[in-house]
Design brief:
With 327 residues, this protein is α/β, with parallel strands linked by helices. The protein has two domains: 2-171 and 220-250, NAD(P)-binding Rossmann-like Domain (Rossmann fold), CATH 3.40.50.720; 173-217 and 252-326, Alpha-Beta Complex (UDP-galactose 4-epimerase, domain 1), CATH 3.90.25.10. It is 40% helix and 17% strand. The chain has a seven-stranded parallel sheet, with helices on both faces. Helix 1 (11-22) links the parallel strand 1 (2-6) and strand 2 (26-31). Helix 2 runs parallel beside helix 4 and helix 6 packs across helix 8 (258-269).
Length: 327
């Protein structure tokens, strides 16, 4: 089989490419390079440069490379930006997905995997979030991911495709320093940026109903996210595609507070990362931690890396791009 990975030159996508290559799969990448970079890809991987909104290009790429399965990772993913630009997010994330699904149906693709997000859940008041926890997304970004799950499942049933939607929790770390996250959008790189500038990281509220008063999240190493995709690909291939329809969390099933993350960052970097407490951000739930039972049962997958390994690998990637951080 040949797998098309949309967004394969991005932070998560490049890790997925490596994981599939290590599994002996044939891979082709489609990426508009708006946030990705061609130098993240091994030389042997074909790169089609363009948008998922370009139906003719997508279908042509599938036919030219004999694509039999698709991993759709390409998407806009900034929650705050999605609130300001909902039309753009629905266009890019939902219409872009529809275009890719239409091309897949037209070319006879039988396996389709969607990168989804824990943002579909919103603010669940539960100890562990299972796949049956009600989805009440709180942002246009989360809404586009939920709509995307519906669209993928419906298309799979109508066109005989096996489908898997993987709901990521909080992704961090890097398999190699060169593949580190270049964006400063999530907690770990945001803390690194402030420490590099000689500033204390910001803690948005310390009065939540948690043991140390700060928010608790489930952090997952990006290499584990990639291995979960590889496990899903193996499942789709083994069942011939059309028999599969799954929605699964990717998480460790363990929560870590913001202060807990700052403590580990301080240990790894050797810097004071105790933090400066500021006002809460609207919409931040006190706790979101995944149940990882379903993915273990369905795919035989479990996370390998702990939080310290995530932070250590993320710091190595940060220092590669920001040498001044080691000063």
């Amino acid at each position: 089989m040949t797998w098309l990975i949309t967004g394969g030159a991005g932070y998560i996508g490049a890790h997925v490419v490596r994981a599939l290559l290590e599994d002996g799969k044939r891979v082709v990448v489609l990426d508009d390079l708006s946030t990705g970079s061609a130098d993240r890809l091994p030389a042997e991987v074909p790169l089609v440069t363009g948008s998922t909104l370009d139906g003719a290009l997508v279908e042509s790429a599938m036919r030219e490379h004999g694509v039999t399965g698709v991993l759709h990772i390409a998407a806009k993913k900034q929650v705050g930006e999605s609130v300001e630009q909902p039309l753009r997010y629905y266009h890019e994330n939902v219409e872009g997905l529809r275009v890719v699904l239409a091309a897949a149906a037209a070319t006879g693709v039988k396996s389709f995997l969607l990168s989804s997000s824990a943002a579909v859940y919103g603010m669940p008041d539960v100890e562990l979030v299972t796949e049956e926890t009600p989805c009440v997304p709180m942002s246009p970004y989360g809404e586009t991911k939920r709509v995307g799950e519906w669209l993928v499942a419906a298309t799979g049933r109508a066109h005989g495709m096996g489908t898997v939607s993987l709901r990521y929790f909080n992704v961090a770390g890097a398999a190699t320093a060169e593949l580190g996250d270049p964006a400063i959008l999530n907690l770990v790189p945001m803390v690194f940026e402030r420490l590099t500038k000689g500033q204390q990281p910001l803690v948005f509220g310390d009065d939540y109903p948690t043991p140390d008063g700060t928010c608790i999240r489930d952090y997952i190493h990006v290499a584990d996210v990639a291995s979960a995709h590889a496990a899903a690909v193996r499942r789709l291939e083994s069942e011939g595609g059309e028999k599969t329809e799954l929605v699964l969390n990717i998480g460790r099933g363990e929560g870590v507070s913001v202060r807990g993350i700052l403590d580990v960052i301080g240990e790894v970097t050797g810097r004071d990362a105790s933090g400066e407490v500021v006002a809460r951000r609207p919409g931040d739930p006190a706790r979101i931690v995944a149940s990882a039972e379903a993915i273990s049962k369905e795919l035989g997958w479990e996370a390998r890396y702990d939080v310290r390994e995530m932070i250590g690998s993320a710091w190595a990637g940060w220092c590669l791009r920001h040498p001044e951080a080691r000063a």
